[in-house]
Amino acid sequence: MRSASNKRETLETKIELECRLDDPSVVEIQTGVGFFDHMMEAFARHGRIGLTLKVDGDLHIDSHHTVEDAGIVLGKAIREALGDKKGIVRYGSSYVPMDETLGFAAIDISGRPFLHFEGEFQTPSLGNFDTELVKEFFRAFAFNAGITLHVRVLYGENTHHKIEAIFKAVGRALAEAIRIDPNIQGVNSTKGLIE
Q1: Is the dihedral of CA 110, 112, 113, 118 positive or negative?
Q2: How many CB atoms lie within 10 A of CB 132?
């Protein structure tokens, strides 16, 4: 089973994470940021991965360090769990409608970290989650996972719906990209490796 555990402790956050790419049976999220917990659960469930995430962050300041550092640790764990990347499909994309909103994500497990993000949120915060942190999370995740990630909110009105649609879309795109295809010999690259 492809899995990895990762811990990170700084003066701002203490994080413990375990991801299981082939066993989605357990998803347990505790970050102290309710809306972010909801988004991470949606990401894991729609990504068909098992995810255990516990964050003790400096929420007396704000939720920035908690959210960004979770993206760092998640990205590193997924990169480790993928190992040599042999047999993976590598690419994935998904459109996710959520009521009036349509979200989109495309992933290339390329070894070349990049984020293209298009999304505007009229509501500045949802509970103790600052909505500007959505982009910060995906940037931290993409750069530490070593993936190319494109995320777009195509349209919508409700901020909750917009953010949830893209978290689900990224999860579904990841599920497709990490899938093992027995027809792929070695890695899915003309270079013969994916770093």
Answers
A1: negative
A2: 12
Query: Tell me, what's the pLDDT at 42?
Result: 98
Q: How far is Cα 109 from Cα 149, in angstroms, rounded to an integer? A: 9
In order of 35, 61, 175, 193, the CA distances from 148 in angstroms are 25, 31, 15, 16
For the question of whether the overall pTM of this predicted structure is more than 0.90, the answer is yes
Residue 146 structure tokens: 């070593």
Q: What is the DSSP letter of 180?
A: B
What's the pLDDT tens digit per position in 91-143?
A: 999 999 999 999 999 999 999 999 999 999 999 999 999 999 999 999 999 99
Q: Token pair of 168, please? A: 């689900």
Closest C-alpha to 48, from 179, 183, 188, 184: 179
* 129-130 and 125-126 strand pairing: antiparallel
- CA dist 95 and 106 (Å) reads 9
C-alpha span between 124 and 34 (Å, rounded): 15
* Cα→Cα distances 6→30, 142, 158, 159, 194, Å: 15, 16, 34, 31, 22
pLDDT in tens, 156-191: 999 999 999 999 999 999 999 999 999 988 877 767
- How far apart are alpha carbons 126 and 193 in whole angstroms? 42
Find out whether 58 and 31 touch, Cβ atoms under 8 Å.
no
